[in-house]
Amino acid sequence: MTSNGGLQRRRVAGNNLSGDHLEETSQPMNRSKSANSINTPKSGKEFDDLSPKLTLMEEVLLMGLKDKQGYLSFWNDNISYALRGCIMLELALRNRISVVKDATYSYTRLSDRLVELVDSSLTGEVLLDEAIKLMKSSNEQLSINNWIDYMSGETWNLTKVSYQLKQVRERLAKGLVDKGVLRTEKRSFLIFDMATHPVSDSQTKNEIVKRVTTSLLMKSDRALTTTNIHHQDESLKPLLQLRTIALICSSYAANVLENALWAMDLEEREKCFEKVEDYFRMFGVWPAVGSAKNIFEACEECGCTKGSLEAVASVLDVMSKMDSLL
User: Fold this and answer.
1) Residue 194 in 3-state DSSP?
2) Nearest of 9, 34, 81 to residue 235 by alpha carbon
3) In this structure, are residues 60 and 255 in contact, taking their beta carbons and an 8 Å threshold?
């Protein structure tokens, strides 16, 4: 993976967009607007208070872990890159980063548009805070594509080696242990021992899988908002919908979405993959199209900035072009 060439889009069976589905998802959302909520950006700290117990990175890792064995598939090379994308998604959803305003961007590929740190307040999540410090210390503005490449180590630029975030999966697993979702065990693999992290709180993982599968099987794009958020109310629905869609796209890019679909028959799985392709098409562009436009506009009313939402679309644009390593 290189920062200048981008990633090639991976394909799944049946990725042709259904005309019926696009007709369904183009229906406008019903939103109640108040004078105090419309276009009033929230601070990053406010979004931290509203964020779920688990970050997108933790949810993606949890979906990829084998429940009893406590480790990821040895053949999954996509997840490391996708987890760095999840870090950028979290920062965008928390109003920490924003796409730089530039009148020439209509001619610039979405993933190559520059982003800036607009709120350097720390989140309390170790990896997010490390990324914030990296961006704050950088003497140049970089694109979403660059940041994901540099944080994952997928670059030949030796001057950016220090930007790599190391041992991300292990650190996420230890964070989930601290949150009571996983536990740590020692497992012997031939000539060496390795720490594994089996699931100890199966309810948390089951809720994530249910949220993902229900969203994918729904006929419209009104994704489930069931989540362990601290202050859940009707006005937060669009933001929770966007988080669910970001989780689904990230899981697909990380090659772990299949773990949530294993109980479905082949036809249902194909419909789910088609829905993911629809999500990438609608949410991975800017301005957004279809029902994505309505969700992004509603998220602005929740306090998200346009620049942060454009950063979300930029990350999804990068993820949509990842190769599938079968």
Assistant:
1) strand
2) 34
3) no
Name every residue whose Cβ is closer than 8 Å to that of residue 145 and which is 6 or more positions away in sequence: 3, 6, 111, 112, 314, 318
Cβ neighbour number for residue 228 with a 10 Å cutoff: 11
In the predicted model, what is the mean pLDDT of residues 308-318?
A: 97
Contacts of 265 (CB under 8 A, 6+ apart): none
Per-residue model confidence as pLDDT tens digits over 59-83: 999 999 988 888 887 777 899 999 9
Beta bridge partners of 114: 143
Report if pTM > 0.90.
Answer: no
- From the CB of residue 157, how many other CB atoms can be counted at a distance below 10 Å? 12
| Domains assigned to the chain | 44-320 (1.10.3630.10)
Strands (E), 39-171: 97-99, 114-117, 142-143
Coil, helix or strand at residue 130:
helix
For 143-156, write each residue's pLDDT tens digit. Answer: 999 999 999 988 77
User: 132: part of which helix (H) or strand (E)?
Assistant: helix 126-137
Query: Helix-strand-coil percent breakdown of the chain, rounded to 5?
Result: 50, 5, 40
